[in-house]
Each structure stands twice: as C-alpha cells, then as structure tokens.
Amino acid sequence: MSISVSHRLAGILAAVTSLGACVPAGRQPMRPAPPPLTVTTVAPAPRPSAPARPSTRPQPAADLLNAVQALGASFKGQVGITVRDIDEGWVVAWDGDTRRPQQSVSKLWVAIAVMDAVDRGQISLSDRVTLTRADLTLFHQPIRALIGADGYTTTIDELLRGAMTRSDNTCNDVLLWRVGGPAAINRMLDAKGVEGVTFGPGERVLQAKTAGLEWRPEWAGAGAFSRRARR
Q: What is the pLDDT along the chain (231 residues), one digit of tens a residue?
C-alpha cells in the first residue's frame, strides 16, 4: 500500500468521527469490557502483472495498531473500527465482527437497485416524481427547501444525484420505495452475492430508532422530531 501510516491514521480518525456523529453515544450502553484488538491476514486480490510476493505476509505497523487500540478503548460509546490493506492483505479491527447501522453507506445499495431497475426497463432516469411534505424524512434533506404547498416535481435522475452527492435522506427514501422498499434491496443484495449486509427499514424508522424513538408521521420535516429527540 503506497500511503503512509500517518495517512492511514488520519483515515481512521475521520471514520471514527463519522461514527460518533451518526450514532448518539448517550443513548447506547457501554460494553462491560473492551474487546481485544485483532489482526488477521487475508490473501490479497491476484494481479496478473504483480511480482511474486515473499512467503511471509506483511503485518501492519505498530503505530497503526496502537492508534486503533487507543481509539477503540477511549471512545465514549459503541464503536467498531476495521482497517484493511487491500495490497498487503492484513486487517486490523477493534470489535470488528459486531454488526452496526450502515447509516448513509446504505444509500449505495439503493442506488444500485435503482440502476438495476433502469437496466431492466422498469423505470427510467427521466421519470418524473412529485414530492410532497409527507415525503420528508429526518435530519439532512436539502430537497426540503424546494417542497412547497403544491409539492415539488423532479426526476429519478435528480433524486439519485441528491442522494449520492448530497446524502439527502428524503431523496434516498423516495427512491427506496420507488424500487420496492427494503425487501427489494435485500433481494438485490442476495442476488449479487453481497454477504453479511442487510437493509431496512427505511430512513424514517431507522433514524427515529437511532434516537430511541418510534417514527410518527407528524415528525416529517425534522423540526418536530428534533425537538422530541432532545427531551
């Protein structure tokens, strides 16, 4: 791997910061004891032109091990850290086997399902969709400013652009239900052989559950929900 250890450490810090922002620590119980740091090696992907590798597999740098150990042990909440070097084949993990909410990473699965539906001719990127205030979800949703009393008409293409480039939760949720909901995403993941990943139940229920609440339709638009979540 060509990047330096310092760049790897910066990436880990960014990932942990993201996890802390997505999953409120105050509403999750602490583990009774920290999990051990694990280091495993996996065979790197074969490369036709790559030179022969030595028989002894490379190991991660001690600085990286120490950084992952320190971050995992000191984080005030639940955290999982996994760093994989795809060239050398090693994996460093802190509580790496525990399944966790994917948050906005799940937008990728929706996007793949949308493009699959386009390829099969079930929908078109130019299809027009009208959003109303009832379609609003929670938290980050820039499209909210465009939805007036008469709604807002856009296209599948623009919704996909909003979900993938601006991480818009409402754009993602509208696309999700357009292609068949969580069940359709899980079927797509299974068909493509994506193991260890499940999807559901949609932005509203998921984000409300993250805050320890059950979704109510009157919370659409984030304002009322945010006030309720702070209580």
A: 334 444 444 444 444 434 333 333 444 444 445 556 777 776 555 666 656 555 567 888 899 999 999 999 999 888 889 999 988 889 999 998 888 877 788 899 999 999 999 999 999 999 999 999 989 887 889 999 999 999 999 999 999 999 999 999 899 999 999 999 999 999 999 999 988 888 876 666 766 776 677 767 666 655 555 555 555
Whether this prediction's pTM lies above 0.90 is answered by no
CA atoms in the 13 A half-sphere facing the CB of 139: 20
Helix, coil or strand: residue 90: strand
Angle, alpha carbons 164-170-175 (nearest 5°): 65
Q: Confirm if 102 and 206 have CB atoms less than 8 A apart.
A: no
Closest of 121, 114, 185, 116 to residue 156, by C-alpha: 114
